[in-house]
Amino acid sequence: MRGILVAGAIALSISLFGTPLLIRLLARRGYGQIIRDDGPTSHHTKRGTPTMGGLIIILAALAGYLLTHLLMQSAMSSSALLVLGLMAALGFVGFLDDWLKVSRQKSLGLNAKQKIFGQVLFAAIFGYLGIHFPDADGLTPISQNLSTVRDTSIVLGGILVIIWVVLMVTATSNGVNLTDGLDGLATGAAVMTFIAYILIGVWEFGQRCSITTSSNCYIVRDPLDLAVLSAALAGACAGFLWWNASPAKIFMGDTGSLALGGALAGIATSLRIELLLIPLGGLFVIISASVILQVLYFKATGGKRIFKMAPLQHHFELIGWGEVTIVMRFWIISGLCVAAGLGLFYAQWVSN
Asked: Is the pTM of this model over 0.90?
């Protein structure tokens, strides 16, 4: 259990004190944010703010997890290493997108097909590897059963599991990417979800079938180590949020948003709480849904819009809400969604 505190503290420290160094490095090289001309005019003041801050989040989370195991001389799990690999791989896709934007001085980096291809490729690799590497009890990092708040009796099989993982990872990474439009919004929501993962991982570890005879026990490969990884990610995001809060000194860019989305989906899959990610990441779901609804309505009505602008946070900007007000209220929504998700998780255990 101490590993959770150590991982969070190390990642928090690296992110909190390392971000200013990254800000100076990026500013010196001129790697500033490119702002779209068709967005809210209030965003034009953010032009040139250093981007690609997701690099420090990835580095801090990796260091927090790895150094914790080195200091405590404990073995790293296949589940956590696979999630770290997925996070780094999607962060690389996002980095390419950010790099092309700043190098070309345009708001478009990778095109949609290229970005989706990268997400699908690395998600498929994660899904394929996840159904291998069984432990002594025969448990693999990813179950071949569909999971809601725990594994169900519905067996998907290898191919369907990989397809399902690809859908989860691409949807979540794009959801975080869409949410990352206001200072601190996506980062704060991600912190809440990672904290929920810590609680779920610890609970599953304490109620695992190898130590309890209860019929309501959990069959999960590495719940406690996934809680340690979640603590490292929560700490990394919290340290970065200090500098990313309004007025932001740095943006995470696609480097951070795609990486965090991959980590959120990867941990949910490994903890066997796949569908619980919907309420736990409720804010990301709501904002993604606003974009889908806007596009469908626009096409169905020949050019009419439900919202003044999508994603949803920009609609509220255009009707006069202040940026800080939007972020705070959306954080409240995110917190309520996380609380609802944890309530569903605990209610399922109590009901059985």
From this structure: yes
